[in-house]
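Today's session is about reading a structure prediction critically. Students often jump straight to the picture, but the first step is always the sequence itself: look for stretches that repeat, for charged clusters, for runs of hydrophobic residues. Only then move on to the predicted structure, which in these notes is written as discrete structure tokens rather than atom positions. Here is the chain we will use throughout the hour.
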Amino acid sequence: MTSAPTHASIFESFLTELAKSFESRNVPDFVDLFLPAGYFRDVLISHWGYASISKDSLDKFFQTHGGLPNIVPRSIKVDPKKTLPLFNEGVNWIQGFFVFETDIALGEGVARIQSDPNTGNYRLLTLSLTLHQFKNHTPLAGPNRPRGVQRGPERSPLNWLDERGLISSFSPNSPTPNPTVLIVGAGHAGLMLAARLRRLGILTLLIDKEERLGDSWRKRYHSLVLHDTIYGDAFPYLAFPDDWPVFIPKDKIANWFESYASIMELNVWLKSTVEPNSTSYDEATETWTISIRKGDGSVRQLKCKHIVQATGHSGEPSIPRFEGEETFKGSIRHSSVHEGGAQWRGKKAVVIGSGNSGHDIAHEFYNNGAAEVTIVQRSGTLVVSSEAGIPKLLESAGYREGGLPIEEADLSLVSLPWNFFEPYSTALHAMVQEEDKDLNDGLERAGFKIDGKDSPGLFYLYFRKGGGYYIDVGCSSLIIDRKVKIKQGQEVQQFEGEGVRFADGSLVKADVVVLATGYKSMRESCRKIFGSHVADQTGTVWGLDPTGEFNGIWKYSGCPGFWYMGGNFLLCRIYSKYVALWIQAIEQRIAPKRPSVP
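Below is the predicted structure for this chain, in token form.
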């Protein structure tokens, strides 16, 4: 009696079929492996870029990029180092990890297969091919790690600490006076990318205007904690201790920045900024020249092949101006410079904006004894609880206690074409909304407008707008209990001496007004730091294009040798790998400085 095939054996059989389609170099045969709703996700394999292509568009994609005849993945097999192929009952597909080779690289793939109702054969819902490493340029880790000691009668007089100091100083008289990559901004995005580049042997310098690493978090409002759970927030190569809290406090993560940079041996200049009008690019040598003002007041001119802007994906604060501001007797400040609520005990506070920052600041005002706190909600806001909403969203991608190893969860997530996943995300969000029904009903009774009940949810709001939601860590109950007031749907007409006048004629009295009104694009920060001659070569940064790919970030920016790096901890960890590999490919002359098809 023949036993029924296992999910693992079904997956292995399908990989054999996939391998044959690649070997034949026949695009129609390859396309036939997909179900009608199927998608192909490409990460630096068939071309220098990221792509999500529906089955109907695969022919055109491969005609544009050379396609299967150029990449020819081979040696395709189940990845023995990752979780075995599994059947996911919730979405009725088998998912498995596999590895493959090309002429120049080792790759990783993820396939999600499902039985075709017409034929009974297994076909692809999604297939991803992602670059893992180049064959002749392996990371300086594991068996390729440095020796750490010199044997023999002649040794350098410098010990490890001496060498670290010499390298990180980029002294004009040292063997390495210039970095290959200059990263402006030493927050999580910059640190993660620098760690990836160091592993690839690419000399990198981080500069940051703050006095200490982590000050971008350390100096923010007193009660701030990360809104994402710890399960998705790890840094490359170095896990958080397993007794750290699920939601990490700001000062704890700030201190981690310092520890991470030290352990990963990253080169950092603090209290350092780009000199105005000092950035230029030489097409002939493919080299940037840039001047840095250091903390001691000296100015150092550097030459580098790549500049990465990692100053935060939100860019410059968006600060609206209102009539009558000069007559207001209180204080007006943007949330980015709000130092906390302690000094406003017994005072009246107004917060304009109802996203994460607006709620957090209102919450802190209340906890610090403000006499009255009002949130001005100009439009609807999506609210999910930290207990039900965020865990469910992240758990669906494998980020949970005892979940997938972080590398597998990342590979699984980057393999998802966002246009393909949107219907599943909508269904998942509906489940979250059902669990949060009492929360949302209570908010609506208090006059708060809930948005996006039928939307794809928080992730897509973040992907498309970078905001418009609140992950509840306590402020919602204050609103429900009327301890924090809501002024909903009214535009500010003007400021007056005692407070804020609204379009309906009402006046809300205030001693302090915080503008939690968001941020401009990274492109505007680029214009301020590097100049319009750089910014104008780049396009839109952030948001999803019609194919479901992010605009302008983690990829060729339109300006040669200039990169935007940003996003939350999870996205920066994932995409720092591919930005580092892309830069390595350019430096090794594997990839062009300017992709022919951006």
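Discussion point for the tutorial: The mean pLDDT is 91.
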